[in-house]
Amino acid sequence: MWLRTIQRSSALRFAVGLSALSALSMAVVFAAMYWLIGAQLHSHLESSVAAELAEFSSEWEARGFDGLRDIVRHHAEEVRDADAIFVLQSLDGTVIAGNARGISPVVGHRTLAHREVAAEPAVGDADDTFYVAGAMLGDYFVAAGESDEEVDEIQDILIKGFGIALLATTLLSLAAGVLLSRRMQARIKGIRAALERVAAGDLKQVIPGSDARDDVGEVVGLVNTTVRDLRIVMDSVQQISNDIAHDLKRPLGRLQSQLALAYDGAKSGNDIQQPLADALAQTRDIQRVFEALLRIAQIESGARRAKFRPVDIAALLGDLYETFEPVATDANRKLLLVRGEPATINGDEELLTQLFANLLENGICHTPEGSTITLGMEVTKLAVRAWVSDNGAGISDADRELITQRFYRSDKSRAVGGSGLGLSLVAAVASLHDAKLEFADNHPGLIVSVTFRRVMI
Fold this sequence. Notes:
The chain is an alpha+beta fold and 457 residues long. The protein is 57% helix and 17% strand. The strands form 3 sheets. A 5-stranded antiparallel sheet has the order 2-1-5-4-3. The chain has a 5-stranded mixed sheet with strand order 7-9-10-12-11. Strands 6-8 form a two-stranded antiparallel sheet.
């Protein structure tokens, strides 16, 4: 079973492929090296023979026949292991001096077998060859040659070394592949087991291996992030379902009561216009809740990013001030505008308008009469901060942590109409724009600020 798993391992297949590629590369390099070394050794052999023949020529010119004979005889006596041959012979082939049999007097270089030059059949290696150079000096033929036995030995050593290196490299590569494969299989086994638990619905599962600094660790980290986000989404869906069931239970109950009154009135012949009007108003309120939920879901999906355009926040806040100033006055509140210099951000103008409109509506609805609400902004080199503040009762620290949750309504706001989704939409729009949403104490009252990244045009 383990062997079959290893055979399917990509790490082992990679190691085998790498071993084959390494072997091929080594073979190509060795072939080139073998040829270059062989050529160099033969060149050295040729140069050595040519130098000896030149020495013979110099001695002939200096001392004549006697000097030539003596130097050939001296070189022949110095030979060990029959690795070189020297011969001086007359034109009829009679050997005058040297350690080789008569050679056909051909001027130039040639390669001769051992049996063609050896003075005795038993001398030397019968398989080696001699590189021979000859020249005519007067009426005599002189030749010098060296065996290529050392060249063959060096090339044999190269071949054996290559074989050992190839074998060692292949074995090491395969061993490393097996070890890596076993290690990888252990990691994959843990990852597979965790993923199976995730597939079974355990979204709290953390897949092991994300701390490893390799590509698998990066993938595991991304999978863990995806599972975490999925868990957050599932928890959010469950929370939304619970919130809808809880917060719509009362309006649906009222709707049922109003329809029941209309039904009973219709049977008894009473006027049912008012109960039906109340029921219709109730359905509109329920419809607005669902529309708000769908709008928040659309914003959180990121689909609205396609509508992002450069937006001048100063101009947008100015338009909102002109729209809400009469509304605030009618509600016996005072709305102020702190103007800032023109500043551009990248965003969806419609959603940004909805964001600040919700904050202004909250400020008007949740503050006592006579309160002052301020809409303002400030600009820095990299950011644009816009805010809505009031001098009302404010909210507690505990409520600040919860007010962006869907359907959440503090005790102070329950007496005021609304669905509890306004700040949830504000938070969703801010998140879509990668903006920082903050709630702080205004001493007295509340200040809600949104900080955007500025776009330089």
